[in-house]
Design brief:
The protein is of the alpha+beta class and 157 residues long. Helices cover 57% and strands 15% of the residues.
């Protein structure tokens, strides 16, 4: 399961970075300046840099991006230990997605001082915070890990 999880993590991190690179090329922006383009009545393509944690929390608190990157690195290490022990395909894929998403966002923090977000969905006046493929990988990965925990029968020790 380790090889599967590592492959999924690598794919998630690479796809995340490629999508952000493509977005920066689209807006002709080498960094993290704010750009916006409406695609549909419910989706905007934006380029924004989130210096906080999930949904921009702590973005104005002056916490250094390096601290967030170090915390994420510790989480990746812990998840890798869990991945080594995984015996389920669903769990290995889920952990791999979380690891890949975390790595994708850490790369941004180290390069830009924050995470590039670019998908901005809304319905009427209800807006969901902007996010990226790494965030999506983390959410789907956590869902897979929870599903594995609920559905896979474990033998008693």
């Amino acid at each position: 399961m380790l090889k599967l999880g590592v492959a999924v993590a690598a794919a998630a991190a690479v796809l995340d970075q490629l999508s952000k690179f493509a977005l920066q090329r689209y807006f002709d922006e080498p960094g993290c300046a704010v750009h916006e383009q409406t695609l549909t009545s419910y989706l905007k393509l934006v380029l924004t840099c989130n210096s906080g944690v999930s949904f921009g929390m702590l973005s104005g608190a002056g916490v250094n991006s390096l601290i967030f990157a170090l915390v994420a690195a510790l989480v990746v290490i812990a998840l890798t230990v869990w991945l080594v022990r995984a015996h389920s395909v669903v769990l290995a894929v889920g952990i791999g997605l979380v690891i890949g998403g975390a790595i994708g966002n850490v790369v941004d923090r180290l390069r830009f001082g924050g995470v590039i977000d670019f998908l901005y969905f809304h319905a009427g006046s209800w807006y969901w915070p902007a996010f990226n493929l790494a965030d999506s990988a983390i959410c789907v990965g956590v869902a897979a890990m929870l599903l594995d925990g609920m559905l896979v029968r474990r033998q008693k020790p």
